[in-house]
Amino acid sequence: MKKLNKIIKFPLFSMALMVLVSACDFEEINTPFTQVSDEEMNRDNMKSGAMLKNLQNWVVPTQNNAYQMTENLLGDVYGRYMTASDDKFNIQNFAIYTASEKWINWPFKNVMPNVYTNWNQIREITEGKGVIFAWAQLLRVASMQRLTDVYGPIPYSKVETGELKVAYDSQEEVYHNMFNDLDWAIDVLTSSAANSDNSTMKDFDLVYGGDFTKWVKLANSLKLRMAMRIRFVDPILAKEMAEEAISHPIGVITTNSDNASIESPVDGNPLYIMWKTYGDTRVCADIASYMNGYKDPRREKYFQTATINSTTGYLGLRAGANIKNTAWGEAYSAPVAENTDRVMWMTASEIAFLKAEGTLAGWNMGGSTVGDLYNEGIKLSFEQWGVSGADAYSNDAVSKQDKYVDPNNMYSTGAVSTVTIKWEEEADETVKLERIMTQKWLALWPNGQEAWSEYRRTGYPVFFSVAQNVSPNIVVANRIPFCVDEYKNNAENMDAALKVLNGADNYQTRLWWDVYRK
Fold first, then answer.
1. Taking the chain, what is the end-to-end CA distance rounded to the nearest angstrom?
2. pLDDT band for position 32 (50/70/90)?
3. In 10 A of CB 292, how many CB atoms?
4. Which of 17, 162, 401, 472 is at a distance of 20 to 30 A from 443, taking alpha carbons?
5. Do you know which SUPFAM superfamilies this protein is assigned to (predicted)?
6. Short-list 183, 67, 188, CA closest to 133
7. Is the pTM of the predicted complex or chain greater than 0.85?
8. Nearest to 176 by CA among 124, 112, 240
9. Could you give the number of structural domains in the chain?
10. Residue 321 covered by a domain
11. pLDDT tens across 336-355, in order?
């Protein structure tokens, strides 16, 4: 049972819990609801396995078209990891805010039904209890956390029967409900990891092969990520959630052996398909200029070299560039991705940087100093990519972002940041935050959507302006507009959705948690 203050804070959860308890008979009350019998486990496994696989494939969508529309053309572009390189994207492009209705609709129209169809069937099979539903609940939160950070308000608490034409929650309500659902899932999964044999679930686990201790670490790590996301808008709740995640008996991801990644589908790794088969994406100038300036040894793991007009190196392309033709765009550096690579969700490096920022904020993140955790984040990232030289890199107090020299002499621009790598305890809080966020951004590659969210939350790292900026007041979008089809298919709830958005339904309106950056 969670602490009373949480139940008071989130009344929807407490009502659901009272209904659950009142519906149980005496035997059920005296049987821990985190336990299920072997017979029930086998029954639920057989019925739920395929749906659990589907849910895992929608956290970061692995099907190539879904990945392209929810990650590569959206998060990767706004996170300044990659940018569109095909001339067909001169007409519609998220970078220059000319995306079509189809593009704007895609994340909502595809993620929502695919997640909730599978989640609701598992909920019905399990009657909303037990380890399998807890697993599904964790996967639901992981998917919806990404979706709410794209649009803001989304349907969440009212989606109980699989019907999606329901009222929207404000983003604050979405986060509060996600914390409650995640806490319940952590409790159940923790008990299961300690007391049950989950080997029968191995065939359905595309991430950890049935190791539920690692799933608990992922759940706590997601809780820490979500807590940091709301740090500047709700610091009291953020601190409480973050410290609970760190102090949990199983804890968070701390080693690369616990990194969360999913098998690529049979048709191949989606990022490989983006750069190789489709030829639609190339490395963005922003990340190339930082890593070139820092002489970062991870470049060869992230980027392919290119030669343009006798210039050879890691050649990034400015976001929003006017692509002369596809061959012109494809000449810039492509990302490194092989067809059999796994799709990464969360890494130990990200968690180290979260803990560094938490410590900077005065939270109890386990006792290490901010600088030690910062250096640990760099070390873990180098280890993840199989690169040596982390100590020398961390001690570089001179190197800075490079200016961007376009080999085609069209979009060159000066550096926009002077932050160096080496941790400086005497630096002011703003410089410390920029240093943490810049190195975290480099380590998050290629999770573009998380990079976009962290930029919006903090304003770091500093990005170049868009090469062709039709909206000069913003560097990257603060959100994307609501799914256009919702105005037709769910019209009765859209007026209320606009009210809880607290702004116009456009790219400029900030999300609830986006209150810190200038």
1. 41
2. very low
3. 22
4. 472
5. TPR-like
6. 188
7. yes
8. 240
9. 2
10. no
11. 999 999 999 999 999 999 99
